[in-house]
Amino acid sequence: MKQYLFLALAIIFEVAWAILLKYTEHFTRLWPTVATVVTYLAALYFLSLTVRTMPVAIAYAVWAGSGMVLITLLGVVVLRQHLDLAAIIGLMLIVAGVLVLHLGSKTAIH
Question: Where do the structural domains in the chain lie, given as residue ranges?
């Protein structure tokens, strides 16, 4: 069960660095840049802990897919970005893919 906690933390830190990246202003602002680098490294660290007990293909797919969806949702809410119909459909397909991998795959944990 630890692998799910590690994966959740990896996703949270991935979302954090991606959102923080916007505030670095092309890495010209020191503290947002430092926070971005620290959260990126934390995301990779927790992902590395996840792949100790979960196949890398499954862990990475769930990490990347979940991160994309959460980052997009935060982009809409926090950064006031807008989604068109194609983006919404694409996100729904990503969620479906993550659910199929996570819930339906017998290789999710070995």
Answer: 2-104
